[in-house]
Amino acid sequence: MLRGQLAGASAESTSIIEKYTLADQVYEKIRAAIFGGEFKPGMELNQVEVAKHFGVSRVPVREALRRLQAERLLSANPYQRYVVALLSLEQLLELHDIRAELEAFGIRRTLAAPLVCGAGALRTRRRCSVTCAAVCPRKSGWSWIANFMSR
After folding, report:
1. pLDDT per residue as tens digits for the range 38-89
2. For residue range 1-17, what is the model confidence (pLDDT) as tens digits?
3. Cα distances (Å, whole numbers) of residue 131 to 77, 97, 134, 137, 147
4. How is the chain split into domains, by residue range?
5. Architecture in CATH for domain 22-84
6. Alpha-carbon gap, residue 13 to 61, rounded angstroms
7. Do the beta carbons of residue 23 and residue 63 sit within 8 Å?
8. pTM exceeding 0.85
9. Helices 58-70 and 22-36: crossing angle, nearest 10°?
10. For 83, which DSSP code?
11. CB-based contact 73:31 (threshold 8 Å)
């Protein structure tokens, strides 16, 4: 009977169910707070205070903090005191280089895609040329992109 019911079911009713635990939600919130500047580098995160801040128990907070420690966004001191990681100048420069390469990759992918007609194509080309100029102003190999998109 179940087999017959599934065969007639719509795609919406049989879509994949995502497992999104409370720990996952807390992890995302803390991560966003770190990247958003709410939790500043060097700031100590007390499990009890973080749990109160997000209105949850300590268990999902502890799991989220451990995940963030594994990503090196937090460091753990003795007695499980978590501190928002400080980035060195070298790490910041590395992140900047990675971002520049990712944005350049996005530009290459956009240019490799079939050309879109109409006003959307012109907006896309302008955005790419602005991004290209901002990301790689000194890379000699990228000047052709700006020239191509200004047409």
Report:
1. 888 899 999 999 999 889 999 999 999 999 999 888 998 877 789 998 877 7
2. 455 555 555 555 555 66
3. 41, 14, 5, 10, 13
4. 22-84, 89-149
5. Orthogonal Bundle (1.10)
6. 33
7. yes
8. no
9. 60
10. E
11. yes
